[in-house]
Amino acid sequence: MKQTKIIAGHFLKIVIRSRAMTIVFLAWLLLVAYAAITGYETYTAQQQMRINFQQQARQSWEANPDKHPHRMAHFGTFAFRQKHPLSMFDYGMESYTGNAVYLEAHKQNTVNFSEAGFSTGLLRFGEISLAMLVQIVLPLVLFFLGFNAIAQQKENGTLKVLLSQGAGFRSIIWGNSVGLFTLALIFLLPVVLVLLVQLALQSTLPAGGAVWARTIGLLFGCLCFLWLVSVVAICVSALSANSRSALLSLLGIWLLMSIVLPKTVQAIGSALHPAPGKIEFDTAVEKDILQIGDSHNPNDPHFKRLKDSVLKAHHADSVQQLPFNYSGFQMREGERMSAEVYNQRLQQLYDVYERQNDVSNYCSLIDPVIGIKNMSMALAGTDFIAYRRFQDQAEDYRYQLAQTMNELQMKYISNSKPKDDHPHMIGKEHWAEFADFTHTFEPVSVTVKAAWLAFTATLLWFLLSFILIRFTAVKAKAL
Amino acid sequence: MYRLAFKNFIRSRSVVIALVLFLFVGLVSIVIGKQFLEKQQVSVEAVTRLQQEQIERNVQHIPDQFGLLLYYLRFAYINQPDPTAALAVGQQDVNSSIQYLNIRGLEGQRYDTGLYNPYNQLTGNLDLSFVVLFLFPLLIIAFNFNVLSQESEQGTWSLVRVQENRPLRFILQKLSIRLMVVLGLFFVLLLLAVIIIGLPLNERLLAFASTGILYILFWTALSFLVIVLRRSSSISALMLLSAWVLLCLLLPAMVNNYITARYPVKEAYSTFIKQRDGYHTKWDTNEDSTMNAFFKHYPQFREYVWNSPKFNYMWYYAMQQLGDDESAAEGRAMRDKLLARQASAANAALFFPTMQAQLQFTAIAGTDLDRHLAYLDSTGVFHEQKKLHFYPKIFGDSAVVNEDWSKHVPQFFTAKTPVNWGDMVTPFILFTLLLGVGGAVIFHRNGTR
């Protein structure tokens, strides 16, 4: 224990004194500042913009005069996706998901206006976020700072001296790992600080956003990951014949884990589970809907049967005698059926996406970078599950809107044809009564459950690091 | 001596392993590109079928009312990617390349996206342009970083100095061997792409190849500059890798962050809301004012009767048109914003060859933002043509049977995007020359230590 401490202190002293460390750390601070400022700018500007537009859409909804409720069903409204405050830390897939959707009766629209759709080809290089710095750049920095920790001692013969003085390989590896991890903490500190400043600058944090619980989770994830990176750097250094080959191995590992594997396994996932494009999807939905019945077609057999049974149940000969508006009733039924079909198809599509993503998910067991990335996106509320929640909420709201308007029609609109050219209408107070769309974030428990694999993988890698130390201590040679 | 050095290099085990690995990754990227093209083709065929079926079914259902029929009918306008898109998928997996539109308001439908798995987009495509852009520099670095330092470290440098009276030539010779191997690998991959994807041998392919060659030359020149600084092998490697991290990872991403924060596209959302309000509020406004506004846009339709006793489709399509008209300013502002983004990216790229290569690859393949904006513009023209074709028939209550529906097949967008050779090659050549000359000067100043 004492030996470990001495070795760690020694490692730290050497690195911190070196000029390279000063340059790298200054560059790091600049990067962190840049990521923090642009992340903050983007978050606040986008969030403000979306809140404003949500209000604007609402105002024009409420400003509608008295009219037929079905007109309001078609007037529709918009749902804007809110950003989670932690998206300042990890943009996740937010740049690739749409931000706004038009909600109307009979039709499920796509969520439009993703940042990617607006972007020049440069987005392909990725984005600088605090998460990207910690998960991609910091490991590289640690590899640079740690590659010759033991390998160099091997080269200049001091390792033999150290070993002969009674320091075991285990405490040498432990000591250097702790030293490098301490460096990692020095690098992580500004990131944590700016994140706290970013969050503190928010006038309000969303209720149900569980910002602090998620932040703590993120911190733990980062610590596990950085410990693993430190251990890998030191163990590779101990196992390599010289510092050059240690550096090359570490760079190879970094390139494979951070760049090549994540891309490749996702490509494998989408090749294994091909998903239909929009046209194929729409064709399938249309086919299903035509099969079950078309509420706009007066001769449709399903709706003819429905009408007959409704008339029979109410002992009526014609729809005029029904106590409610029949066409509202028919549209309610049509909406229910078409929404059911659409959502079923959408569910199938998302199942395909999830199978594609599962390939990556399971690969977090061979690539810890994928694990920490997925975990971090999940906690920052910027992963696929978070996006689906927005879509589900928007669709739910759309359905409620359409059905509420249909019910208003059933209740207040007469079955008889309007006299003197004035269409039937109801009071505008009904529009204000129907509440606005609100996008809420899922509880942390749901997040953890959905991303359990990423959490487990990160934890497993953390545990594995101790096995790696043991293994290296046995295997490593002094020469 | 040259041939001997070449053989010596190519026979090294690590070089062979690296080449095999790159060949394999390159091959995978080509197959991924081919799959991308095939998927696009499947969608094109699907929409062609769908359009025909929908026309047939609806014409049968609604044989008497042009106005109602055109409420349902949709027409496809396709941005068919060039085969070279398989080499540089760029933005084409994000931007929808099929617009399937009805003749109602355009603004409400032209920005509809496809259905995509965002995780796929996040990781991005492993296409050949990625391999060249990100991975080739690493190969060049690995081949070159110790060309000179190794000689010093092994003590052979003094030997060389004695034998060779122009040591610069010796270094250039060693570098050129490595350059030829890298270029050879690039050509083999291009050849494989031509065979596997079936690329036509045309100007675009030549432009793609030229950009690739110039990009490889740039990295070789950068390696040259670093090695003549005469640092140790590991310092040279560190410097080159830092350059890679900076040029391929950090700087382009920083520029992207800057552009995103500098130009937020709020006009997209206001277009969205304005279009809805522009159309829907017309149900509650005076019909005369709606029609007057419509006739102001289309004076040629003034003579049609619009105030008939039954529901009038002329009024309905006029309302739709006003949704577009009232959101037109926002739509233009959004387009201008995107052009501004594109311009600042292009400007920044002049100083960073990696960004230049990325933008050029996608420009050549027609998968960049410029091409997408041109496609969106052209979609407006397509939509206008369809409207002008059908408006007189709707307004004049023509007979549906007289329409030749076989004419209404999907149409293709043809881009006029010539390869701009000057803009494409100049930055690379300047940078390469600068680095090369700088390297030679440093080498001579340092003397032949």
TrEMBL record, chain A:
<feature type="transmembrane region" description="Helical">
    <location>
        <begin position="20"/>
        <end position="40"/>
    </location>
</feature>
<feature type="transmembrane region" description="Helical">
    <location>
        <begin position="216"/>
        <end position="239"/>
    </location>
</feature>
<protein>
    <submittedName>
        <fullName>DUF3526 domain-containing protein</fullName>
    </submittedName>
</protein>
<feature type="transmembrane region" description="Helical">
    <location>
        <begin position="450"/>
        <end position="469"/>
    </location>
</feature>
<feature type="transmembrane region" description="Helical">
    <location>
        <begin position="246"/>
        <end position="265"/>
    </location>
</feature>
<feature type="transmembrane region" description="Helical">
    <location>
        <begin position="128"/>
        <end position="151"/>
    </location>
</feature>
<dbReference type="InterPro" id="IPR021913">
    <property type="entry name" value="DUF3526"/>
</dbReference>
<dbReference type="Pfam" id="PF12040">
    <property type="entry name" value="DUF3526"/>
</dbReference>
<keyword id="KW-1133">Transmembrane helix</keyword>
<dbReference type="Pfam" id="PF12679">
    <property type="entry name" value="ABC2_membrane_2"/>
</dbReference>
<keyword id="KW-0472">Membrane</keyword>
<keyword id="KW-0812">Transmembrane</keyword>
<feature type="transmembrane region" description="Helical">
    <location>
        <begin position="172"/>
        <end position="196"/>
    </location>
</feature>
From TrEMBL, chain B:
<dbReference type="InterPro" id="IPR021913">
    <property type="entry name" value="DUF3526"/>
</dbReference>
<feature type="transmembrane region" description="Helical">
    <location>
        <begin position="128"/>
        <end position="148"/>
    </location>
</feature>
<feature type="transmembrane region" description="Helical">
    <location>
        <begin position="12"/>
        <end position="32"/>
    </location>
</feature>
<protein>
    <submittedName>
        <fullName>DUF3526 domain-containing protein</fullName>
    </submittedName>
</protein>
<keyword id="KW-1133">Transmembrane helix</keyword>
<keyword id="KW-0812">Transmembrane</keyword>
<feature type="transmembrane region" description="Helical">
    <location>
        <begin position="175"/>
        <end position="199"/>
    </location>
</feature>
<dbReference type="Pfam" id="PF12040">
    <property type="entry name" value="DUF3526"/>
</dbReference>
<feature type="transmembrane region" description="Helical">
    <location>
        <begin position="205"/>
        <end position="228"/>
    </location>
</feature>
<keyword id="KW-0472">Membrane</keyword>
<feature type="transmembrane region" description="Helical">
    <location>
        <begin position="424"/>
        <end position="443"/>
    </location>
</feature>
<feature type="transmembrane region" description="Helical">
    <location>
        <begin position="235"/>
        <end position="255"/>
    </location>
</feature>
